[in-house]
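Researcher: We're teaching a course module on how sequence relates to structure. For the next exercise, students receive a sequence and then see the predicted structure as tokens, so they can try to spot secondary structure elements on their own. Here is the exercise chain.
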Amino acid sequence: MPRKDQGWITFQSSEEERTLLEQYCQESQRSKTEVLRELLRGLTQQWQKISENSPSVPEVKSTVPSSYQVLGISARNTIPGKVKQVLIGDITAEVIVEIAPNVEIVSVITKSSVERFAIAPGKEVCVVIKSSDVMIAVEQ
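Model: And here is the predicted structure for the students to work with:
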């Protein structure tokens, strides 16, 4: 279990979906994290193809904005997005980030991180995925 000062990704899924994911991971001998990475990369490629053919679809950024590259992090999976909602608890907060139209990632981070980085709906952030951790990066 990640320490409480780290973020992680959460899913709400049916029993059938969980069983399907477990079977897929077992048969492909890949972790859930690897499967998630593959799905997100495929989604990014799919949205790029759609946006090239249709000017009405917003462009999905496939790279990290240059302002975030100064962070110097080891995680390769960084996805820009906009904070849609922040649900603050006593110690942790759920940060819901929209990375593409109707595509959201939920990160659980500490309440103090939300306050320190002034994370609020509408703020541009990067979702950082490293193994089982999903963190939020902000421009400083």
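Model: If you want an answer key for the exercise: The helical segments are 15-28, 32-53, 111-116. Residues 2 and 8 are 7 Å apart (CA to CA).
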